Glycerol-3-phosphate dehydrogenase (Manacus vitellinus), 725 residues
Amino acid sequence: MAFRKAVKGTALIGGGAIATVFGLSQFSQYRNKHGALVEVQAAEVVPVKNQLPTREQQILALQTNSEFDVIVIGGGATGCGCALDAATRGLKTALLERYDFSSGTSSRSTKLIHGGVRYLQKAIMKLDFEQYRMVKEALEERAHLLQSAPHLSAPLPIMLPIYKWWQLPYYWVGIKLYDLVAGSQCLKRSYVLTKSRALELFPMLRKDKLVGAIVYYDGQHNDARMNLAIALTAARYGAATANYAEVRGLLKSTDPASGKLRVCGVRCRDVLTGKEFDVRAKCVINATGPFTDSVRKMDDEEVPNICQPSAGVHIVMPGYYSPDNMGLLDPATSDGRVIFFLPWEKMTIAGTTDSPTDVTSHPIPTEEDINFILSEVRNYLGADVEVRRGDVLAAWSGIRPLVTDPNSKDTQSISRNHVVTISDSGLVTIAGGKWTTYRAMARDTIDAAIQEHNLKAGSSKTMGLKLEGGQDWSPTLYIRLVQDYGLESEVAQHLASTYGDKAFEVAKIAQVTGKRWPIVGKRLVSEFPYIEAEVVYGVKEYARTAVDIISRRTRLAFLNVQAAEEALPRIVDIMGKELNWSEQKKKEELETARKFLYYEMGYKVKTDQLTDSSEISLVPSDIERYKKRFHMFDKDKKGFITILDVQRVLESISVQIAENTLHEILNEVDLNKNGQVELNEFLQLMSAIQKGHVSGSRLAVLMKSAEENLRRRAAIPVDRSGGGV
């Protein structure tokens, strides 16, 4: 009864606010009609290249073209969006990225395609029309993004749990306004849930004092693959698109009409070969995200900074922490931030933090931020769900390129509105913004470039334009992959949702397994649907390093760093054959990729939980019990165990495990990497497991099982159980 009264009261309170925003929302309705017209135009734009050019051909195009209309610096979402917008307007376009496409912020997002509920709250509370307009535009772009790449994106219901009665009308009004501002682009209408229904849909929720919940809809996507799809689409429309092409400086010439120096191109370096060359253009666009100011200073060393970088950390946990198709929003954390808790790629992603940071190409997640996120997650999950530090499978930090408000000291109050600026020498800079609005940002940037540099081109044609893989995709496409090629259903679904209608090209090059089923498709690691053929296809998609494969062509590094490390040797072998790598080059790639996992993807925190200085907080009886287990393997009482010791025990109980698997199992615990596990290391491991700092250790499971099975002679499980970093 009380619940119904609260809902009725909510309707009365929200009526006035809804009427107010309804009037504001009318100004943009004409844009929906305009968008429909532009979508018809987009359908008429035909890609000029059915066959994707190789990277070598793209580099050659950069070197041999006398002058481009537009050069875009930066291969993130915005830069690739600018290249696609320019190319589809018929402009001769070049796109240069220092590392790999989406190697920076664009691959390290919350994976949401959203208008920004919190920004709408600020717009209404502060009567900020600019903030409101940003949310309105983002909601329109959200609908476009979901339509342009349906294989990479989908609507996601997000639950807002309510623990105080007064919050129900407050949040209900805000969410309903969010629906209203979206207008005809609303994905699905929000709704209110009773306590029992909320727990039915999200059983992990904390039950104590739960009043009910509100569910609203936003979009979710595979951010790195979406970014890559934009880049590949630009390439198909004729843009000379090159990763690992570093801009070393800007070229300038004197304008005969004004007598002023104007930017007329860039000095470029092919990072893979070291060769440098000039690329000339009528217009140069700076779309480098957090590195915006460094490119602006190439133009003018005295120019003041316009970006204030903010670090956002995310963690990935096992999928059992959240329902398969329901996210969670914590609108007010202990320090006023917002935390999302979302299902993604059959795992659970939690984040983000928001704190000032220095600009770097290799941001590192901190233990402090990881523990903050875990602490907030604990506040919303039931007491029967133990949130363990050891369940963190991966962690990363991304740098948001926020536009600086000179009067603000707190990055949280800075809007992500984008700004387009043009320097005296003609350098066009696009800064700020958010993932969801990349297309609108690109449109505004190219419009400004056309006007400033008198380029001959029409209006933007990207509204309604299908991205790479989206043209002939359907929700049932994976069934054809299973039937025509003999792929596992899980693998087929993964390929369809990653490559869209290009999944058939991957399936065609998949290796025969030699098994009755599946017929083709050898997995890189057993618990993930990534197959070896994706590495070969990734090279065709311009992947040139092992890091490109584990983090952006597949998302293995973002899902489980231990699994990614396990897959690395095979990935390097396949890439070595495709790219003719020497043995030395293979070793370098392995080392670089492992360093990437160690520092940037949270693997370091695993070893930080198990260092020589770690405190062993075990009671004497536990220490004796674990010593006996250890000495069962260390028969010679050497003080350490090796792979030979493990093999001897397994042979005694008639169990066989591949030698390379045993190496991986010991390597997870071998802190000093000397090929053996000392007693102290083993005790540290067991202590960390008891404290929840480490979970799913295969060595611990194997040794416990061996101890028990010496009597029963049963099989010993060695599959990874989801242990974290």
